[in-house]
Backbone:
């Protein structure tokens, strides 16, 4: 689905008039299309049909409870990386058994809480973590279920900051180390080590690295099975890329599923996939007002009321997001703008030299592809309160996060008027 086409000159998204929406809810405003999210999760399920496969949505992409609830209604479980994400997933009605816990640095308290909740599986990323899970599960008198996160040492051909499957990355362990764990698994009697996991990176636009990594993991599964190890689960991770730019090619869910089907042919256990971005990115827009147009010596700046604190991706990864002006753009003169926010950093730039229809103060623009890693990575930098979020469905909208007010932003701060010794 091409979101820019959906918005086009009509100014509507999921049947909702965006100008009327922001007149009520203000800007900056995150708006997500419920039908677009449903369409994605259903498409993925259809592509995976015929395999015993479960979707474990990566909560980090967008952890808003309403989004999680929507995905839970569509049968998705959750991939979490913190105790906070576990709370969100459980609160949204995702069954503990459908939660997998990934991440290189789980605290004892998080492991304990996950065991208490009865989550489905830990994706273990180091021997120290395996030891910790053993210790905590033994103290609880329970058995933890675990997969080893393999680092297949494959270049995911994505941005270096979101590449996770090379040997020099902090994630997972080598196949050689994992082999040692399976050989010595009696050392961890309170851990049922019966799964493999991988996640080589995010925003993957080529499936070739996934094919390569899966081949390595599948060969390891076969080796383990031949050695008598019962492998009940293979988790292929997330990472499926999306179109941030009109005309960009992104992988197709059916091609992705075909690749998994082929690599894991003959596997009798459960297959898990952990998409985040692919399910929600293109279903979200960040709506923002043009504060002013500024003619610099060298550039023409379009200064928005949204900034890097609201959507960090362009500043952090120099990521491209399509930007559209809401309204009738037919026959409009087009000009090149540097689209920036009000934050006091030169990096607070959404786009450079971007051709857009001529804009004026007060115009409304939509930054596309903002449904994933947008609100979830927002901060209050420059003391800018967190933006509101709305879910759109069939011409209606629900406010799923209120705009943060100033009092809420500083609520946990204290003056240094009470000193304690430590
Ligand atoms: C372990 C794990 N699973 C799944 C994901 C989801 O990634 P994406 O949003 O690229 O699908 C991530 C983030 O990259 C991750 O670290
Ligand atoms: N936050 C990143 C993706 C990281 C994925 C999490 N492992 C992005 O916006 O593209």
Residues:
């Amino acid at each position: 689905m091409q979101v820019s086409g959906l918005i086009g000159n009509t100014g509507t998204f999921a049947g909702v008039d965006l100008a009327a929406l922001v007149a009520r809810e203000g800007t900056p405003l995150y708006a997500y299309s419920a039908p677009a999210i449903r369409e994605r999760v259903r498409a993925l399920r259809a592509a995976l049909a015929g395999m015993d496969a479960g979707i474990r949505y990566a909560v980090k992409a967008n952890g808003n409870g309403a989004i999680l609830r929507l995905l839970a209604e569509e049968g998705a479980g959750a991939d979490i990386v913190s105790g906070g994400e576990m709370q969100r997933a459980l609160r949204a009605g995702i069954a503990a058994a459908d939660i997998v816990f990934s991440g290189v640095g789980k605290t004892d308290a998080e492991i304990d809480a996950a065991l208490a909740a009865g989550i489905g599986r830990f994706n273990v990323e180091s021997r120290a973590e395996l030891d910790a899970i053993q210790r905590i599960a033994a103290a609880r008198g329970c058995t933890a279920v675990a997969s080893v996160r393999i680092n297949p040492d494959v270049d995911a051909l994505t941005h270096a900051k979101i590449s996770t499957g090379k040997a020099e990355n902090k994630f997972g362990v080598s196949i050689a180390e994992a082999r040692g764990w399976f050989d010595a698994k009696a050392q961890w009697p309170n851990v049922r080590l019966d799964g493999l996991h991988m996640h080589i990176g995010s925003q993957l636009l080529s499936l070739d690295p996934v094919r390569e990594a899966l081949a390595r993991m599948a060969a390891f599964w076969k080796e383990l099975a031949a050695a008598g190890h019962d492998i009940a689960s293979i988790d292929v991770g997330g990472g499926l890329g999306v179109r941030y730019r009109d005309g960009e090619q992104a992988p197709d869910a059916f091609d992705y599923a075909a690749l998994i089907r082929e690599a894991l042919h003959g596997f009798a256990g459960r297959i898990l996939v952990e998409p985040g971005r692919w399910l929600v990115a293109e279903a979200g827009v960040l709506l923002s007002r043009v504060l002013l147009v500024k003619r610099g010596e060298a550039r023409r700046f379009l200064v928005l009321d949204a900034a890097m604190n609201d959507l960090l991706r362009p500043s952090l990864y120099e990521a491209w997001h399509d930007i559209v002006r809401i309204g009738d753009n037919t026959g409009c003169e087009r000009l090149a703008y540097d689209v920036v926010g009000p934050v006091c950093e030169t990096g607070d730039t959404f786009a450079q030299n971007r051709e857009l229809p001529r804009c004026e103060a007060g115009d409304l623009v939509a930054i596309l592809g903002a449904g994933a890693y947008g609100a979830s990575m927002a901060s209050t930098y420059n003391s800018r309160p967190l933006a509101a979020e709305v879910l759109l469905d069939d011409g209606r909208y629900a406010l799923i996060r209120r705009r943060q007010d100033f009092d809420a932003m500083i609520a946990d701060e204290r003056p240094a008027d009470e000193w304690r010794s430590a």
Summary: The mean pLDDT is 95. Residues 208-226 form the longest helix (19 residues). The two ends are 57 Å apart (CA to CA).
